[in-house]
């Protein structure tokens, strides 16, 4: 593999700014990497090499002309296919949007464009972000660069595979119940879910509006922080956007890398893999997390166990709230306004066209969740299901509030297990949903949380999750950077160079 595609974005940005590297040269290296490996990995749904190289050429010309450019100018980036991009196909991993080219950019896409980044392409995902393995994509599954026979996590599995496999220096994903953090964990990346409302949702195709959040996926904590700062901030077009300054997370990442956590109070969540709550967790995952907690103590942190009893109810609460909101959000896909239209031959009435479009356009998992959500919202069941789930959500938020009265951050495994074999859970929805056991509480409470690699179990990556109070994203980055520096997990992984040979022989 080209040496360029193994470097972190911060170093690539330095070389671009110093004139040691051109954006065209860098973009071509990633496009070559995509050509070599993506037939096996399935990380991308759309790549336009011509447009990417033209954009890179524009940035190079501006730099040569002496124009003042930002630190991200000329750096390639990949976007999960849930962000609308003007003139670029956006499908949300679904056949119902196949071939749709939006007339506008999502706010985060526009901000990255304004920063001078080069769009490599749109990454694969579970359809409408519903899944934990990227096997629910309507187009093809995505594979884990660590082992192509295993899942890359989901629903942002295309973004995780692209970055872990050297097909992009960094990428954006979305996290509704763990869809940035869990794929980051199982592919050895850093993935951060910002405080809800801290990054605009305008132009993000909605799954669950009270939970969806965009965020960065990268090889290093600093890269993730820099990308976070580029996309964050208030957006008046998003009614849920927080009118507050972007947290200074890059500074926190740099400070954390020094490894001084003196005085930091860390709470180990008993209900997330702690003592007496190890069922369903890989022994190797728990061992790596315990070792990482000991590292934090060695850097001066004060560690104690914390109980958050309502966290045990996060899974059922989430799978009532999120599908309920999905059943409403996905009603817009009716075959009338955009995307797929089935049965449009004059022999069907309006209702029949809508029914045929949804039957052909939505995949099995999406239909499952629409049905579940519609039932939970139906007359006679609303209070018993959706209403009760919202009460549990309040209890979870209160558990966080009580915990943060005594500690500064909470920690846990990111995923209970390492990446599992492709196909192992496709016929067992409950086993698939359990992949998000550790990530769901922070999503339901709208709090920031980050996953950082903390070692290997059975030769596969393990993620360490750090959660913080609302708008305290900097704490997540500080602790994650300290873990990263202590474990020296900042430069990809051993399979990067082997992947083209392995995949060609597969």
UniProtKB/TrEMBL annotation:
<feature type="active site" description="Charge relay system">
    <location>
        <position position="155"/>
    </location>
</feature>
<keyword id="KW-0436">Ligase</keyword>
<dbReference type="GO" id="GO:0005524">
    <property type="term" value="F:ATP binding"/>
</dbReference>
<dbReference type="GO" id="GO:0016740">
    <property type="term" value="F:transferase activity"/>
</dbReference>
<feature type="region of interest" description="Disordered">
    <location>
        <begin position="133"/>
        <end position="162"/>
    </location>
</feature>
<dbReference type="GO" id="GO:0030956">
    <property type="term" value="C:glutamyl-tRNA(Gln) amidotransferase complex"/>
</dbReference>
<dbReference type="InterPro" id="IPR036928">
    <property type="entry name" value="AS_sf"/>
</dbReference>
<dbReference type="GO" id="GO:0006412">
    <property type="term" value="P:translation"/>
</dbReference>
<dbReference type="GO" id="GO:0050567">
    <property type="term" value="F:glutaminyl-tRNA synthase (glutamine-hydrolyzing) activity"/>
</dbReference>
<feature type="domain" description="Amidase">
    <location>
        <begin position="25"/>
        <end position="476"/>
    </location>
</feature>
<keyword id="KW-0547">Nucleotide-binding</keyword>
<comment type="similarity">
    <text>Belongs to the amidase family. GatA subfamily.</text>
</comment>
<dbReference type="InterPro" id="IPR020556">
    <property type="entry name" value="Amidase_CS"/>
</dbReference>
<dbReference type="InterPro" id="IPR023631">
    <property type="entry name" value="Amidase_dom"/>
</dbReference>
<keyword id="KW-0648">Protein biosynthesis</keyword>
<keyword id="KW-0067">ATP-binding</keyword>
<comment type="subunit">
    <text>Heterotrimer of A, B and C subunits.</text>
</comment>
<feature type="active site" description="Charge relay system">
    <location>
        <position position="80"/>
    </location>
</feature>
<protein>
    <recommendedName>
        <fullName>Glutamyl-tRNA(Gln) amidotransferase subunit A</fullName>
        <ecNumber>6.3.5.7</ecNumber>
    </recommendedName>
</protein>
<keyword id="KW-0808">Transferase</keyword>
<feature type="active site" description="Acyl-ester intermediate">
    <location>
        <position position="179"/>
    </location>
</feature>
<dbReference type="InterPro" id="IPR004412">
    <property type="entry name" value="GatA"/>
</dbReference>
<dbReference type="InterPro" id="IPR000120">
    <property type="entry name" value="Amidase"/>
</dbReference>
<comment type="function">
    <text>Allows the formation of correctly charged Gln-tRNA(Gln) through the transamidation of misacylated Glu-tRNA(Gln) in organisms which lack glutaminyl-tRNA synthetase. The reaction takes place in the presence of glutamine and ATP through an activated gamma-phospho-Glu-tRNA(Gln).</text>
</comment>
<dbReference type="Pfam" id="PF01425">
    <property type="entry name" value="Amidase"/>
</dbReference>
């Amino acid at each position: 593999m080209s040496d360029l595609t193994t470097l972190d974005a911060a170093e690539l940005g330095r070389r671009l700014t110093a004139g040691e590297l051109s954006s065209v040269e860098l973009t071509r290296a990633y496009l070559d990497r995509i050509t070599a490996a993506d037939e096996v990995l399935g990380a991308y749904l759309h790549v336009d090499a011509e447009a990417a190289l033209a954009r890179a050429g524009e940035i190079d010309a501006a730099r040569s002309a002496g124009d003042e450019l930002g630190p991200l100018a000329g750096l390639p980036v990949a976007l999960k296919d849930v962000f609308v991009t003007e003139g670029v196909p956006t499908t949300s991993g679904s056949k119902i949007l196949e071939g749709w080219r939006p007339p506008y950019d999502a706010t985060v896409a526009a901000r990255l464009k304004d920063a001078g980044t080069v769009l490599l392409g749109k990454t694969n995902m579970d359809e409408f972000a519903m899944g934990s393995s990227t096997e629910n994509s309507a187009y093809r599954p995505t594979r884990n660069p660590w082992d192509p026979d295993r899942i890359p996590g989901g629903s942002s599995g295309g973004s995780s595979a692209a970055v872990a496999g050297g097909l992009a220096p960094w990428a954006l994903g979305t996290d509704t119940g763990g869809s940035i953090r869990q794929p980051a964990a199982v592919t050895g990346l850093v993935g951060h879910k910002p405080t809800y409302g801290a990054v605009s949702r305008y132009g993000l195709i909605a799954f669950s509006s009270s939970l969806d959040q965009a965020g960065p996926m990268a090889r290093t904590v600093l890269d993730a922080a820099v990308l976070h700062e580029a996309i964050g901030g208030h957006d008046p077009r998003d009614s849920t956007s927080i009118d507050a300054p972007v947290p200074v997370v890059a500074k926190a990442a740099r400070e954390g890398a020094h490894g001084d956590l003196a005085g930091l109070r860390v709470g180990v969540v008993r209900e997330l893999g702690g003592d007496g709550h190890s069922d369903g967790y890989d022994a190797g995952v728990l061992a790596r997390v315990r070792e990482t907690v000991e590292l934090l103590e060695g850097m001066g942190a004060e560690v104690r166990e914390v109980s958050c009893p309502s966290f045990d109810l996060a899974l059922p609460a989430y799978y009532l709230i999120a599908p309920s909101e999905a059943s409403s959000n996905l009603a817009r896909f009716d075959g009338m306004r955009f995307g797929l239209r089935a049965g449009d031959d004059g022999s069907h009435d309006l209702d029949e066209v809508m029914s045929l479009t949804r039957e052909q356009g939505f995949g099995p998992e999406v239909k499952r969740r629409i049905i579940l959500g519609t039932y939970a919202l139906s007359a006679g069941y609303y209070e018993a299901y959706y209403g009760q789930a919202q009460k549990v959500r309040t209890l979870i938020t209160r558990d966080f509030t009580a915990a943060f009265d005594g500690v500064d951050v909470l920690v846990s495994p990111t995923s209970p297990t390492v990446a599992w074999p492709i196909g192992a859970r496709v016929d067992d929805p409950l086993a698939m949903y359990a992949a998000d056991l550790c990530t769901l509480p922070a999503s339901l409470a709208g709090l920031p949380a980050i996953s950082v690699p903390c070692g290997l179990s059975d030769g596969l990556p393990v993620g360490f999750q750090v959660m913080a109070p609302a708008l305290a994203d900097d704490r997540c980055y500080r602790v994650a950077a300290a873990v990263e520096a202590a474990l020296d997990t900042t430069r990809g992984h051993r399979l990067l160079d082997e992947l083209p040979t392995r995949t060609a022989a597969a």
